[in-house]
């Protein structure tokens, strides 16, 4: 069906709002398409927000408020259990095992002309902006030179952020594709007592820009995000024309509560979970500042907002015992692992008037699905070569049971530390192709015992904590999942072939 016909049908069904009148303030009107705000936090566990684990000992009132106003997804997964892997899948709709993610320190991971969630939105008339942690590489030739291959070359009109984490030097801010200040000074390495070497106020030694303070980065990113929202609202104020307001896509990628854990003084000692809990409380408060700015700007009701975390927490079993707080929410493992805590993430979608408030979904979702979902929201068909591993979960958001057959049924991931270890999920069954965590949990890799299982098979419905390996008991399931995994890995896509009327 031609796009014009689909749009007319959408208007008749009340899906698309007609242009507002000239005397209506555009910041308070409903655009033809919703604003889209994606808030991605870093290393927050499934069990940290109270709306996902009522036993959480960390107060997260603003994240909980999003859940009350929207839909919680309880089976949502990162495309990979590490920062750069997860972000690549989120941006492109492509599984990160399909590219060499290891080159990010000096080369861009996203190829020129590769469709992203930002370029999709920009092509549909959106103003696009990113604030925060990129971690997908630039083409680096010195920090006094432009930094191509980053956000502004991947569909964003504007970018303010950092190249990677706040524990990976060099530390400096980037605006668009230039360093705000070069990292001409040096900072010594730091770590905290009573925590592991990769927890606490940990950062690596390296270059740092003269005016960058690591303990100010989080608040600075919130300030920049609020500025984007306020400027957008001002530019979409009262107008004499009859065109609908230009929508905004904002991708806000906080580098927290990833290390270094640096809670502001007003949060120090406020949680019952040490400096980590204090920092999570601060992240929650910063999210509250952003949601309040949407409300103040008159944009809340016309905004589709997504909240999630990029991968699992750095939280050991000893930490759970010490603080009586399970950051993994009863799941096994931690960041980088093939086990559930490495990649099952808290995911919330709030879209007033469209997504039911205080609802939840058990639909299997991967962050690669954001691209197809946004295309569905915008009533466009993805080109054949775009989003090869992206499935729209819009039917789950809108409760459209007649279209659920097109949603995701399988999910595949590569482990964070053992690249030969792959995971496939289908229904309640999960196959991990080797023994061990594949990530930060010990043992990372385990040799099979004589006559013992060589891989891992779990029934997540009966055993969500992955304690009982059924590899030997269910060879039929193993064979079926291994065959499906091989097909997905060796093919260039996992989503269905686009319809004949798709854009080439």
Tell me the distance between the termini. 16 Å
Q: Can you count the beta strands?
A: 17
Mean pLDDT: 92
Low-confidence stretches: 1-31, 499-504
| Helix and strand pattern | HEHEHHEEEEEEHEHEHEEEHHEEEEH
Could you characterize what this model shows?
The protein has 504 residues and is an alpha/beta fold. Helix content is 23%, strand content 16%. It is built from ten helices and 17 strands. The protein has helices spanning 3-12, 61-69, 83-92, 117-123, 217-235, 274-296, 317-323, 369-377, 394-398, 475-490, and strands spanning 35-41, 71-77, 127-133, 158-162, 174-175, 178-179, 185-187, 206-208, 248-253, 303-309, 344-350, 359-361, 365-366, 410-414, 422-426, 429-432, 456-459. Strands 1, 2, 3, 4, 5, 6, 9, 10, 11, 12 and 13 form an eleven-stranded mixed sheet that branches. A hairpin with a 2-residue loop joins strand 5 and strand 6 (178-179). Helix 5 runs parallel beside helix 6. The two termini are 16 Å apart. Mean pLDDT is 92; it is low at 1-31 and 499-504.
